[in-house]
């Protein structure tokens, strides 16, 4: 059975048995916070549990490495939407140890792309168009620095309202949080 089919079969029962009733809430966050964190599998349940966050409590934006790589990209837009339209009034950036984006080499990812059929010409075309693929795919060296960088990007964005922006690092095995930037 395909993974999708398995999920859809489960979903049918989920709805029929009204399991959604445990999760009923509104689109406005009870804790009035928007969290930017990594897409890491270990954080799917661990991060909300470690922060005592339940369905309806916060907005969560996820991206590889919890990085804000472009001031006018969709990550920054999501944060602004949460702050201006959805009643969040604090921002929390949560990076984590042992992140896939930590020490990630763009070169090895580009090699993988080539092995899977992306041609050299494609990379050349992108390069001629002014797109620095290598820079775009690059990760970070130290998670604390990367979290501080994301906090700064958010904090200094020209469209940001006056709200606290915090930066934390989580241990993906124990859930322990360390503060990198306290925004108050
Ligand atoms: Zn990660």
Textual characterization of the structure:
The chain has helices spanning 3-16, 43-50, 74-84, 106-115, 120-128, 133-137, 143-155; strands spanning 34-37, 59-62, 91-96, 165-170, 177-181. The protein has 184 residues and is an alpha/beta fold. A five-stranded mixed beta sheet has the order 2-1-3-4-5, covered by helices on one side. Bound molecules: zinc ion. Zinc ion is lined by residues 38, 40, 65, 96, 99-101.
Which tags fit this structure?
alpha/beta; Beta-carbonic Anhydrase, Chain A; five-stranded mixed β-sheet; about 40% helix; binds zinc ion; carbonic anhydrase; EC 4.2.1.1; metal-binding
Instruction: Give the uncertain stretches in residue-range form.
Output: none
Characterize the overall form.
globular
Alpha-beta classification: alpha/beta
Count of strand segments: 5
Average pLDDT for all residues: 95
The CATH class of the domain at 26-104 and 139-181 is Alpha Beta
Range of strand content = 5-15%
| CATH architectural name of the domain at 26-104 and 139-181 | 3-Layer(aba) Sandwich
Predict the CATH topology of the domain at 26-104 and 139-181.
Beta-carbonic Anhydrase, Chain A
The H-and-E topology, N to C, reads as HEHEHEHHHHEE
Percent helix range: 25-40%
Bound compounds, please? zinc ion
The end-to-end span amounts to 51 Å
Catalytic activity: hydrogencarbonate + H(+) = CO2 + H2O
EC number: 4.2.1.1
GO molecular function: carbonate dehydratase activity; zinc ion binding
Binding site for Zn(2+): 38, 40, 96, 99
